[in-house]
Each structure stands twice: as C-alpha cells, then as structure tokens.
Amino acid sequence: MVKYETGTLDTIFTALSDRTRRGILTELLNGGRSVTELSAPYDMSLLGFLKHLQILEDAGLIAREKSGRVVQCNLTAATLQPASEWLATYREFWAPRLDALEKYLKQQETP
Q1: Which whole-number Å values give the CA distances from 103 to 37, 90, 92, in the listed order?
Q2: Could you give the CA distance from residue 35 to residue 50 in angstroms, rounded to a whole number?
Q3: Which pTM does this prediction carry?
Q4: What is the Cα–Cα distance from 1 to 79, expressed in whole angstroms?
Q5: How many whole angstroms separate alpha carbon 13 and alpha carbon 7?
Q6: Of 78, 81, 75, 71, the residue nearest 25 (C-alpha)
Q7: End-to-end Cα distance, the chain
Q8: pLDDT value for 5
Q9: Average pLDDT, the chain
Q10: pLDDT band, very low/low/confident/very high, at 86 (cuts 50, 70, 90)
Q11: Would the pLDDT of 110 be above 90?
Q12: Residue 4: φ, ψ to 5°
C-alpha cells in the first residue's frame, strides 16, 4: 500500500472512501470511543477493524490513546480542512451553473 504524508488530500480522500471508516468518524462526532465500542456494529474481525483505524490515524483523522488495556479513539476533525477547501472550490464552480439550470428548467415547465 502506498503511504502518503498525513493530512494530504490523497490520504484524506483515501480514508474517506470507505463506508466503514466514514461510519467510525460519524460515531466519533459524539465524542471519544473505545475500540471495542467502535467495532461492535461491524461484522468483521478485530484485526480487520484495526486496519481501518490505522488508515484513519495515518490520515490524521483520528488519534488513539491507550489507558491501561483500553484504547480510546478521538476525532481530529481539523485535518479535514484541506479537503473542505478543495471541495469549496468546486462548489463555487458548480453552484451558479446548477442555479442557472434550475432556472432554465422552471422556465421550460411554464407554458
């Protein structure tokens, strides 16, 4: 597997490309969770789940902290900023075009 620098767009979008990893991030919006709590809803081995956590951690999207035998995961959402900025560029490009399309379609509906 190709390793990317933490926080790069490629790394962030690779991490976000999987439904399981997006689900993990959604769960972490509500606060930190243990690996056991996070893995419960997923029908996969612990080793498979840990690989997903590693990808998220490598992308800088989560931080893991061990306290005794419990590993706690926390969201580090600031890492999403480069992706948000990149998407905003395209939002600025498409918004006026989609608004114009909507206006045109409404005109076509009116007799």
Answers
A1: 48, 20, 18
A2: 8
A3: 0.78
A4: 21
A5: 10
A6: 75
A7: 58
A8: 56
A9: 90
A10: confident
A11: no
A12: -115, 160
